[in-house]
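Section 4.2 – Deliverable D4.2 (structural model, holo form)

The reporting period included a commitment to supply a predicted holo structure for the target in complex with ribulose-5-phosphate. Inputs used:
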Amino acid sequence: MKTAGGSDEAKRRAGERAAAAVEDGFVVGLGTGSTTAHAIRAIGRAVDDGLEIRGIPTSFQSRQLALEVGVPLTDLDAVDGVDLAIDGADQVVDDRDAAAFGALIKGGGAAHAREKLVDTAADRFVVVADPSKLTDRLERSVPVAVLPDAHSVVADRIRALDGEPTLRDAERKDGPVVTDNGNLVLDCAFGRIDDPDELATRLSGIPGVVEHGLFVGVADATYIGTDDGVEVRRY
Ligand SMILES: O=C(CO)[C@H](O)[C@H](O)COP(=O)(O)O
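Output (structure tokens):
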């Protein structure tokens, strides 16, 4: 599992703090990545101790981990709503004076399409992160999941928005990353993103784009694990 950036101890603190917010009877969105994995394991331990919840995984990875640790699973079609979603992020705007305070870039694990579906369906969406994810302005490449047939035309449209798209290569497989839903991923560098909301609208308007990794106005809070505690930002 990818663990780049930030200490695993900080990730564990953030994940376990979020898991502690899960209440009996909850339907919980289970995000993807190394930080959320700590939350899923903690939820699994709570289920062992009698907590009754159902989880909705956002990826093959989170589904497998949930099954391994005994978290009962369901899906969006089978529930009336999602009480809480817990998910990681690649960058989080942590400038209280910025209009985009709390905006995220996600998709480092190429799971952002299902993550956005589940995270936005939740009554409450909590981001779990370590301090390496915090930034004044978003500036990492934005993952854009595209229909396979559309990757070159979408890449042209990204260039027209002054972005530099790179088709994400797979590791230990020839060719590109193929997402859990059979899409390809363009990692799109835009430099510093001053208005993520506007960029998000433009990206969503490109035919062939399945979903992009800008999450603007979606998170309710971020739990930031540090080496000696957890800081909470509320939006
Ligand atoms: O968006 C994601 C997957 O698509 C992850 O949540 C994001 O990449 C953070 O992962 P990690 O907690 O391993 O740093």
